[in-house]
Amino acid sequence: MADDKNSWTEERLEKLRALWDKGLSISSIGEELGVTRNAIAGKAHRLGLKKRQSPIAAKKQAPKETVIEEPEVLPLRLALRKLNWSRSKCAWPSGDPKHTDFNFCGQPILTGKPYCAAHCAEAFTTSRDG
Length: 130
Fold this sequence. Notes:
By secondary structure, the chain is mainly alpha-helical. Helices cover 40% and strands 3% of the residues. The protein is rod-shaped and about 110 Å long. It starts with 9 loop residues before the first helix and ends in a 7-residue tail after the last helix.
């Protein structure tokens, strides 16, 4: 029997197993051993080497962790969404509504009024300056 470079000697089989266990691609193992990737795939199957996930399938299934960092300065329309407002809290505006630092007072309201006691005193006056 002729001993050519494509025969599967015990030494080459051990090298195949070692490279397979390292996780090298089938193509890389084939290049290392001087045979085609199909020869490697067939020999790995016949040797019963553990199956590995396809690199294409692995890329599709790899969990993608997406960290969404909010910018320090949000556009106004997004900043206004973050306003903490409810009918039970003082709706007295604070700041310019065209800027992202705009907010409402937020203190508890007086019953039947939209504002807290301090802002009711400013908003509802009984005397008129003449």
